Amino acid sequence: MEHNGKTYWGTVLSLLTKILIIWFLVSFGAGILFAPALNSISLGGYPLGFWFAHQGSIYIFIALIFYYAKKMGDIDRQFDVHEE
């Protein structure tokens, strides 16, 4: 049982790490670091770097929340710790 618990938490931490990396790249990367390069592209009349900093990051965050909830449900079922 101990091995199963360590594997479960390792899987959960792996998922969280991936989500946090995406979150960082979108919020800090696209909104700040890569904004000058992205500003050469226009989306809805606004530079893409500006759009990511103000709108795009919110959409990505909401998508990450739904992705996290779906993947955690799958992980919980895989390790038989889900709620019915």
TrEMBL record:
InterPro entries in UniProt: Na_symporter_ssu
Record-annotated Sodium symporter small subunit domain positions: 6-82
UniProt keyword list: Membrane, Transmembrane, Transmembrane helix
TM stretches of this protein: 12-38, 50-69
UniProt keyword Transmembrane present: yes
Taxonomic placement: Bacteria, Pseudomonadati, Pseudomonadota, Betaproteobacteria, Rhodocyclales
Keyword flag Transmembrane: yes
Name this polypeptide is given: Sodium symporter small subunit domain-containing protein
